[in-house]
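Priority: medium. Attachment 1 of 2:
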């Protein structure tokens, strides 16, 4: 009989659980599920306004030709702010002895400061930049 009463209690609990689900509560708000997919830079134009033929330009270097990421001298230290903290490496013109990019990369990877060696994207960036510099 004891077994029967525990089975009945479980059945009652299952019924209560199914009743709780009927309140249609969801921890995820439906309005938040598509955030980012529907965001645009366009303003809502009401239907009663005539079409406007003015355009917005938001290119900061309008009229300029884009340059390759690997030919930009500032790309590496701007792309990895946690490694370089916005500080540019000294240029060879500022050094008493000229140093090749390969030597700089090897030193950074072997350095006591492990930020460079632990950043996989930075390592791939350095390898690609090194190959681009060799083929120039």
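Attachment 2 of 2:
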């Amino acid at each position: 009989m004891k077994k029967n009463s525990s089975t009945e209690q479980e059945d009652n609990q299952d019924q209560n659980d199914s009743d709780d689900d009927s309140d249609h509560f969801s921890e995820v708000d439906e309005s938040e599920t598509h955030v980012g997919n529907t965001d645009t830079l366009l303003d809502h134009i009401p239907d009663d306004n005539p079409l406007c033929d003015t355009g917005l330009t938001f290119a900061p270097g309008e009229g300029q030709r884009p340059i390759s990421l690997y030919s930009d001298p500032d790309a590496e230290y701007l792309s990895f702010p946690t490694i370089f903290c916005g500080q540019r490496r000294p240029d060879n013109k500022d050094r008493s002895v000229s140093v090749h990019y390969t030597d700089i990369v090897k030193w950074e990877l072997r350095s006591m400061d492990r930020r460079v060696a632990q950043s996989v994207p930075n390592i791939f960036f350095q390898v690609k930049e090194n190959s681009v510099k060799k083929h120039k």
